[in-house]
Amino acid sequence: MAQIKVTPLGAGQDVGRSCVLLTLNNKNVMFDCGMHMGYNDERRFPDFSYITKEGPLSDFLDCVIISHFHLDHCGALPYMTEMVGYNGPIYMTHPTKAITPILLEDFRKITVDKKGETNFFTSQMIKDCMKKVIAVNLHETIEVDDELSLKAYYAGHVLGAAMFKVEVNGQSVVYTGDYNMTPDRHLGAAWIDKCRPELLISESTYATTIRDSKRCRERDFLLKVHDCIDNGGKVLIPVFALGRAQELCILLETYWERMNLKVPIYFAVGLTEKATNYYKMFITWTNQKIKKTFVQRNMFEFKHIKPFDRTYLDSPNPMVVFATPGMLHAGLSLQIFKKWAPFEQNMVIMPGYCVQGTIGHKILGGAKRVEFDKQVLEVKMAVEYMSFSAHADAKGIMQLIHSCEPKNVLLVHGEASKMEFLQGKIKQEFGLNCYMPANGETVSIPVTVNIPVDVSLKLLKRTLHNPLTSESDIKKPKILHGTLMMSTKADGSPLFRIIEPQKAMKEVGIKPHQIRFTSTLRLEDRNRIQPLRFAEILFQKLKTKLRDMYNIQLLADGSISVSAVIIKVDVGADEDLKEVYVSWSDQDDALGSYLVDIIQGFQRELTT
Amino acid sequence: MKFIALNENPCKPCNIIKVKDTIIMVDCALDLLSSLCFLPLRIVSTNNSSHYSNWTTKDNQELETELKECGSRVFVDSSPEFSTPEYSTINFEHIDVILISNYNCLLALPFITERTNFQGVVYCTEPTLLIGRQFMEEMITNIERCPKTKEAFRWKQNYKQIPFPVNVETLKPHLWKQIYSLKELNNSLSKVKIVAFSEKIDVFGNLQVTPLSSGYCIGSCNWVINTNNDKIVYLSATSTLTTHPKPMDHGPLRNASILILTNLTQTPTSNPDNMLGALCENVSVTLKNGGNVLIPCYSSGIIYDLFECFINYLESNGHSSVPLFFISPVADQSLAYSNILAEWLTQNKQSKVYLPEEPFPHAAMVRLGRLKHYPGIHVEAFSNDYKTPCIVFTGHPSLRFGDVVHFIELWGQSPNNLIVFTEPDFPYLEALTPFQPLMMKVAYCPIDTSLNFSQANKLLRDLKPSRLIIPHQYVSPPMMQKHRTDLVIDYAECETHVYKRNETIKIPLKRNFEKISISSELANSLVPSEIRPGLSIATITGLLVAKDNKYELKPLKKNEIQEAIGSKPGLSLPPLSYTWGTLDLQVLMQKLINIGIYDTTIEQTSNGCIVHLRSEEAFVTIDDVSTHIVCDASSNLRTMLKDIVVECLKKF
């Protein structure tokens, strides 16, 4: 029995640091290579020593696949390729390839330049790492090598997010990355065909949520912003350059349009245009509506959102400002925060995760007094945390399982307790095995291997159109019988063929050895009927008994044929006995034995 | 495998391939050449009617209202018509799939999806759909802008007597149709499914179809149709030159069982690079003399290269203030879409989006106001911006509809102005006939990047197909260049089939085997016998499961055996094994002793022997190829003897 092995190095019963190892028919694939934003020590990166204690990883991995640009899915990539060592292929979609290096560089700057950490990858490493990346298109079949191929499907989580199917020798595994089954403001819904993988590895962030909670969160967010500006307050939204920033911009832009609001929205200069340009270039990856209207109006050319100028800092009027970086640890966002924090009509909305030690992390923890530059700052403004990530809810996950019809399911990227709930549901509703390994825990999933062979077309057609029985009932099971010939082709690859047994013997050059039987029955016949007449009586009796099931004939020499079985009648040594010879070959053993039984049964009828 | 071409012109392909009971239509092109037989559509038509005289035949005076003469050629005074594929003999209900190679080959699709009983699926790439839609919308808009009050039809009965500017014999006027409506277009395209390059599309489990980049235009592809045993390659418009589209993908096209070659260059004697050079020179001279340049063009394709080339050329030749105008109802779409289709472009254009910059320089040209685009000359912005000298790109290249008609009339009488033909679809003199006499200069610089004959022959030598299907036009040199014996397909290393419109080509694809997969459970139960090293055989009996034309063999379960045999007594499963070889008599005797039969005698016969089991009144006749057991039916001796005999033989 073959096996599929899966080991999460990250995201096993956990959210963050996604990194899942797969072994499928001797091919090793790494799905995602993420960073854990909650740690500052070595736990930040997946434990690559699991793969090999020493030396480069290239010999142990056939390829690395990155599902999307969020750092918890790609943040450890330069560390892995440049510091641990990996030179093999890395696959991701075009938008992911475009945006990933920017986010990596952003994060590197914060970690190294601001926080002064060492033992982190450099800008050059990011560049060298990205050179190893091969960009893929949706639905394109990529042949990694002669045996391993992969195909990307739309995942709808962020721009360029994809689910990946890997296939080796006809067996496949699908890894979803993060996905969303309902179209949102700028992205379409995840889609996959009925590819019937052996295993589906699915994220399960919202394993227990049944409704699409994103819309509610969005409404919540808009109301909070609206309330704040209505009360004359200013709203600060610290963001990173790409990703959620654009999502929120679209959100506010359409809301402003709809509500006809005049309060200005600003975006810190320098970032907007470049970042938003990526979204403009990759319009084909957004949803149908944006794609359709982009010639008239590009959704990412914002009407209400204007570049920010430092002079606005001291303006008394309400406004909404997007500023980088996203964790309030440096730069413009921190500067604005310092100015606005002491006033309670103001508000800061943190739309993403904040690393420990950052001001963002502190205020989210409820700190009302924050100290920096040896000064104490009173935080009177409202502090809100909101997650806008688009993930499939439990219904969506079930929907995806329904779409692709996997034989097994494995859950990652979720909390253990929530996974258990979903695991039960999957087992109950689909009757599938569902696994949820912890980090470092290996799951072996038994799979059946089908062996591809060539079957003689004649034999196949005969089987399909002439079932074993003479009735050509199409609903009856079709039984294929033949000889499997196992040899090798000129190039050494195996050649398996099924052909008719007689042909096989001829081809192989062996002579069949036929076994025949003749069984002798002695029937009492006091009337001493002529053997020919006796045969006639026997023939009539058999005909009545067998009805139309077999082709039965009385031949000129007085013998009877039932299909290929021959019956002859002779006078025995004792003239009161008739000797009946039933003769058949091995293939007709069942019929021969059956006829012997019937004829023996006639004895009683003949004597009475 | 069967092949039928429905269009005469191999550059406007519409072909049908039947393989393994699946019928595929590849490409669905419209031959636009017929439009040259119509009068140009003018926005203001009154003053020009006087320009033409009526034309009739002796026996049909009614034609007077339909036909006009100009420059000793005759034109139909009606909306232009286009030559559709000849599909009267095709039952579209039976067509399973339509594959579209590029946007030029999409134009006839609404005639099929909306006006026949076609029920199948249409596949093409995303750019083919996007740009194809633009082409179609552009044609519809341009034609509908100048509505004709009546449709001319009588002339079709007498078409052979009418001196049209082009030979209409092969275009078959009865196949000509006016353009479809916008509604038909939208309905038709809603039936299209998008595919990616190298995506494997399963067709009823029977075939696998894959589009592969052909390098000709954005999203253009060739097709590989795989059965389990054979590979059929369909080569549509393909280019090995480096322009803007993603380069051609060769690898998967190699070693095909059958290769179908269509859509080679329409201008085999001109080199695209030289033409581009000549074009720039002509433009430069004209601009120096203060003249205007008119370039009739399609709204997508070569123009992207022209924009890119012009901007550098004009800059370095002191014409940096000459405005470039691009006028088309779909100009905005064409410029915008071309810049979001990076994945379908050549590597260096593709990598620009990582910067992020637009892949084509025309985006920047538009931003800088260097290139200006308008949906038509009627918009106010154009009248405001218009200044001479200038360069105008506009359609349609047939010169029968679109704003190009206006510009020829506007500029035609000055010898300073220039019209340059770059699109290869139309003979330029015939296109110009209804505008004669003209004073403006005329240059013909056709740029057709599809394969020329020498490139095609070279490609075939690389791809090494086992059989080749080509149109009859590619067997002998073109009509006008009879001496150019090099302008043919001369690949002689395989069987070549030559096709003409509506002739069926049949090629037997020998297929003795079908793929089937054996379940691991059944495979594990097999008992292989080694006949000689490297060759083993095993008897296999299993349940055949057929699903979506895929076959699987599974172990038989009891209930299935019962169901298969049914209630018919005396019926059994096929044998579990077969015996072969000669019987080992010594082993047989020993085995008889083992079960307690001692009183045997052996009688030699001419070809073997008879073993008598005297006490049992039974005997066994043995020769090289058979063994016959004769015994009394009442005892279980028979089965015992059978088992012994089987043990004395080889089996599998």
TrEMBL record, chain A:
<dbReference type="InterPro" id="IPR041897">
    <property type="entry name" value="INTS11-like_MBL-fold"/>
</dbReference>
<dbReference type="GO" id="GO:0004521">
    <property type="term" value="F:RNA endonuclease activity"/>
</dbReference>
<keyword id="KW-0862">Zinc</keyword>
<dbReference type="GO" id="GO:0046872">
    <property type="term" value="F:metal ion binding"/>
</dbReference>
<comment type="similarity">
    <text>Belongs to the metallo-beta-lactamase superfamily. RNA-metabolizing metallo-beta-lactamase-like family. INTS11 subfamily.</text>
</comment>
<keyword id="KW-0479">Metal-binding</keyword>
<dbReference type="Pfam" id="PF10996">
    <property type="entry name" value="Beta-Casp"/>
</dbReference>
<dbReference type="GO" id="GO:0016787">
    <property type="term" value="F:hydrolase activity"/>
</dbReference>
<dbReference type="InterPro" id="IPR011108">
    <property type="entry name" value="RMMBL"/>
</dbReference>
<dbReference type="Pfam" id="PF21386">
    <property type="entry name" value="IntS11_C"/>
</dbReference>
<keyword id="KW-0963">Cytoplasm</keyword>
<dbReference type="GO" id="GO:0031123">
    <property type="term" value="P:RNA 3'-end processing"/>
</dbReference>
<keyword id="KW-0378">Hydrolase</keyword>
<dbReference type="GO" id="GO:0005634">
    <property type="term" value="C:nucleus"/>
</dbReference>
<dbReference type="InterPro" id="IPR036866">
    <property type="entry name" value="RibonucZ/Hydroxyglut_hydro"/>
</dbReference>
<dbReference type="InterPro" id="IPR001279">
    <property type="entry name" value="Metallo-B-lactamas"/>
</dbReference>
<keyword id="KW-0539">Nucleus</keyword>
<feature type="domain" description="Beta-Casp">
    <location>
        <begin position="245"/>
        <end position="363"/>
    </location>
</feature>
<dbReference type="InterPro" id="IPR048662">
    <property type="entry name" value="IntS11_C"/>
</dbReference>
<feature type="domain" description="Metallo-beta-lactamase">
    <location>
        <begin position="16"/>
        <end position="210"/>
    </location>
</feature>
<dbReference type="InterPro" id="IPR050698">
    <property type="entry name" value="MBL"/>
</dbReference>
<dbReference type="Pfam" id="PF07521">
    <property type="entry name" value="RMMBL"/>
</dbReference>
TrEMBL record, chain B:
<keyword id="KW-0963">Cytoplasm</keyword>
<comment type="similarity">
    <text>Belongs to the metallo-beta-lactamase superfamily. RNA-metabolizing metallo-beta-lactamase-like family. INTS9 subfamily.</text>
</comment>
<dbReference type="InterPro" id="IPR027074">
    <property type="entry name" value="Integrator_9su"/>
</dbReference>
<dbReference type="Pfam" id="PF21382">
    <property type="entry name" value="IntS9_C"/>
</dbReference>
<dbReference type="GO" id="GO:0005737">
    <property type="term" value="C:cytoplasm"/>
</dbReference>
<dbReference type="InterPro" id="IPR001279">
    <property type="entry name" value="Metallo-B-lactamas"/>
</dbReference>
<dbReference type="GO" id="GO:0032039">
    <property type="term" value="C:integrator complex"/>
</dbReference>
<feature type="domain" description="Beta-Casp">
    <location>
        <begin position="303"/>
        <end position="432"/>
    </location>
</feature>
<dbReference type="InterPro" id="IPR022712">
    <property type="entry name" value="Beta_Casp"/>
</dbReference>
<dbReference type="Pfam" id="PF16661">
    <property type="entry name" value="Lactamase_B_6"/>
</dbReference>
<dbReference type="InterPro" id="IPR036866">
    <property type="entry name" value="RibonucZ/Hydroxyglut_hydro"/>
</dbReference>
<dbReference type="Pfam" id="PF10996">
    <property type="entry name" value="Beta-Casp"/>
</dbReference>
<dbReference type="InterPro" id="IPR048660">
    <property type="entry name" value="IntS9-like_C"/>
</dbReference>
<keyword id="KW-0539">Nucleus</keyword>
<dbReference type="GO" id="GO:0034472">
    <property type="term" value="P:snRNA 3'-end processing"/>
</dbReference>
<protein>
    <submittedName>
        <fullName>Integrator complex subunit 9-like protein</fullName>
    </submittedName>
</protein>
